[in-house]
Amino acid sequence: MVEQTAAVLDQYSIRMNDMLEWLSGYGADEQGGVTRLLYSREWIAAQEALSSYMKEQGLETFYDQAGNLTGRLVGSNPDLLPVVTGSHIDTVICGGKYDGTYGVVAGILALAYLQQVYGPPVRTIDVISLCEEEGSRFPLTYWGSGNIAGNYSMERIPAVSDREGITLEEAMSAAGFGPDSPYRSCLRSWDAYIELHIEQGFVLERSQQQIGIVNGIVGQRRIRVSVGGESNHAGTTPMGWRRDSLACAAEMITCIRHSALEMGDPLVATVGSIQPSPGVSNVIAGETIFTLDIRHLDRKVLDEYTDKLQQKLRKIASQEGMDMYWEENLNIDPVLMHPDIITDLQHICESSGIACRTMPSGAGHDAQVLGSQRPAAMIFVPSRQGISHNPLEYTADEDLMQGFRVLTEWLYQYAYRGECHETL
Amino acid sequence: MVEQTAAVLDQYSIRMNDMLEWLSGYGADEQGGVTRLLYSREWIAAQEALSSYMKEQGLETFYDQAGNLTGRLVGSNPDLLPVVTGSHIDTVICGGKYDGTYGVVAGILALAYLQQVYGPPVRTIDVISLCEEEGSRFPLTYWGSGNIAGNYSMERIPAVSDREGITLEEAMSAAGFGPDSPYRSCLRSWDAYIELHIEQGFVLERSQQQIGIVNGIVGQRRIRVSVGGESNHAGTTPMGWRRDSLACAAEMITCIRHSALEMGDPLVATVGSIQPSPGVSNVIAGETIFTLDIRHLDRKVLDEYTDKLQQKLRKIASQEGMDMYWEENLNIDPVLMHPDIITDLQHICESSGIACRTMPSGAGHDAQVLGSQRPAAMIFVPSRQGISHNPLEYTADEDLMQGFRVLTEWLYQYAYRGECHETL
Which chain A residue's Cα is nearest to B207? Predict the structure, then answer.
């Protein structure tokens, strides 16, 4: 283990808090949250501030054309590809201080710490502040990591616009990035990626564990289910003669929940939105549309469950004499985290006596984009009450520091001692 | 039975069709429907046209201060209070040709027919075009019949406005009515009221019956049910740890339907509107609000069912660890039609070989307002596919004429021969 004395850890805990507080000033909004949208003035200022801070820690820094900012701790062996940690600092509108930002801040501090105690590593370590994850300004997610992974490129910039009609290309160019900027094109060669992030759920908090070792980021299917019945007068139509689409949808929602509970974790199935038509208290709904969000870590299980569920819902519709339309509008593959890094992280937690659990991530992260190309891993710390994307987002100092310790330890074992190298 | 020869009936059938067509020109809208809102230019013109038509039929006519238009066939015995038939000619926005209008038109033609064949009656017969039933311009219903029944008065005109901010009082005054108009105040003395109306449901059509004899207008309770759970991320919150308000509401909706089916006709219970919050596909709904509309002919059954249902829903909420709020915002008493008139009408149908059923009205009508003061009755004719409040509203000529026949026969028996007088 690295020497994590109480005094040194206390010092880094203070720095972590200071940095999170300091960064939350970039984009502080009137609601007490942080609004730092891609390529906005606040976002540019925050990246610049981070760049300066990285330099002060003795890191080499560089942007790429998309606006991803890297801080580099150069290793002694130039033949080894860099190992990368980091996350993103863009936020949702009125978000919290921790989502993404924590992973960037903790990554910079981890490199500072390692350099302070051990000097340069064998393998180069990069900390990256990815230029977009949330998709809260433009209707696309993972623009930053997507450019690195090759999902996007400067040759084909998506023709999307923000709410004010500004295109992604215009905004990127105005921020000083893009194909005509002085920056180099995106990195395409790296060894592995490890991201420290808040859980954005309450599993760790409720199970009183401090670290979540992510075994994968769930695949996701989103479906729009439409139930077609017959709209009639709520007073003049006897119960037995109705074709009530909302009543039928209610049976379906119950079926969805029960079948998901039966399937067990990590499967989740959610109906979050429902719209009966005409949606008036004294009229039987002729058509009801609801959304269905299904997630699982295993592609096969996700698909089998979804297929069986569709059959069940069709049976309910048929029994009730209803029409049913099933329209899928999102289908994302699960991405597994690398099993060797998972094992490394489990060992680190065990030997440090940290209460941890191996768990899937139900939310999407840059690690799933980078993890589709190269080995990736994620470390979760608890989110108080599971709250995220909200000014009330909070993680206790002690938990922030446990995440920092596990990240630092793994980077030390990996980049200084090469302990895990053979397996990747 | 009155002498309803084929030739005479054919003649009245043509007149009925002509009149319905002619009236639908007052307020004909671009969608092919009729929009004739209270005190609008179209409504005033239609009442005036009806007034002229009534005079041509030899009826005395008069308005009251509210704008109700009466056509009177004066009886030979001035000691007998008038028997009244009629309905309303105001419509919903983009309504059909039959709702209300049919009862007014058939009433005028019934008086014309009786006078043509039998001369003046013993008891005075009034046909009334009530000045508002739908509540489609102002947020109040039964303004016309309510003034007659004493629920409203010119001394206390409700302070309501239409969508353009015009008050009821302003609109009434601009139309030439109101307390300062030359018209007399509303009639408060009448003997009985009988209203011919389209069913606005599909029970008669599907059961292949031509006449519905209404035994009562159902009471109605409207409740806003709010289910409070916990809003969480749809990806990061395991199924077993959720407090999903929409899933709980779905269980409740199923319970509502099943309990209503179990209770049997004429009870109906409808959830027509539901609003989960935040209502986003990837967020578990923290709160879900839905409407509940319950109707029954028997006050006691309506209340017992509603109370038991509330208990059941509270039990579901409790089992799911949810909060539930129950807010009633409408509670209308059932109004029974007069049993003797029901018997009269049943006899008329039987002796004429008309397929009829005795049935409740699930929708509200002026007959419930006037019926709260004096004996009332309603005759229904089939609505094609149960469609109403829509340009597609339609009743076949043959059915329109059966309604006319039954109404005319009852008025003849009642006002000419005094056959039912003793019992009322």
Answer: A241
- Determine if the peptide bond prior to B278 is cis (ω within 30°): yes
- Position A312 scores a pLDDT of 98
Q: Are B42 and B170 contained in the same domain?
A: yes
Q: How far apart are CA A357 and CA A350, in angstroms?
A: 11
Distance from CA of A17 to the nearest CA of B (A): 26
- Say what the ipTM of the complex is: 0.89
Q: Are the CB atoms for A376 and A335 separated by under 8 Å? A: yes
β-bridge partners, A64: A184
Does residue B1 lie within any of the structural domains?
Answer: no
Band of residue A187 on the pLDDT scale cut at 50, 70, 90: confident
Taking 80 as the threshold, does the pLDDT of residue A210 lie above it? yes
Q: Do B289 and B339 fall into the same domain?
A: no
Which of B304, B282, B306, B285 is CA-nearest to residue B294? B306
CA of residue A8 relative to chain centroid, distance: 30
Instruction: Measure A344 CA to nearest chain B CA, in Å.
Output: 24
Residues A133 and A197 in one domain: yes
Residues 6 or more apart whose CB falls under 8 angstroms from that of A377 comprise: A192, A193, A194, A195, A213, A214, A337, A338, A341, A342, A345, A367, A410
Q: State how far the Cα of B361 lies from the Cα of B198, in Å rounded to an integer.
A: 11
Assess whether A319 and A402 both reside in one domain.
Answer: no
Contact predicate A381/A211, CB 8 Å: yes
Query: Model confidence at B384, in pLDDT bands (50, 70, 90)?
Result: very high
Which domain range does residue B31 map to? Answer: 6-217+335-423
Which has the closest alpha carbon to B21: B54, B49, B51? B49
The reply to whether B205 and B98 lie within a common domain is yes
The C-alpha atoms of residue A256 and residue B284 are separated, in whole angstroms, by 14
| A151 marked ligand binding residue | no
Among the three residues B305, B332, B359, which one is the final residue of a domain in this structure? Answer: B332
Return the CATH number at B288. Answer: 3.30.70.360
Q: Is A88 annotated as a binding-site member?
A: yes
Collect all residues of chain A within an 8 Å Cβ-Cβ radius of residue B251: 250, 254
The per-residue pLDDT of chain A, averaged, comes to 94
Which helix or strand (DSSP H or E) is residue A356 part of? strand A356-361
| Predicted confidence band of residue A421 (pLDDT cuts 50, 70, 90) | very low
Lowest-confidence segment of A337-341, B2-6, B128-132, B157-161 by average pLDDT: B2-6
B111 class by beta-carbon count within 10 Å (0-12 exposed, 13-18 middle, 19+ buried): buried
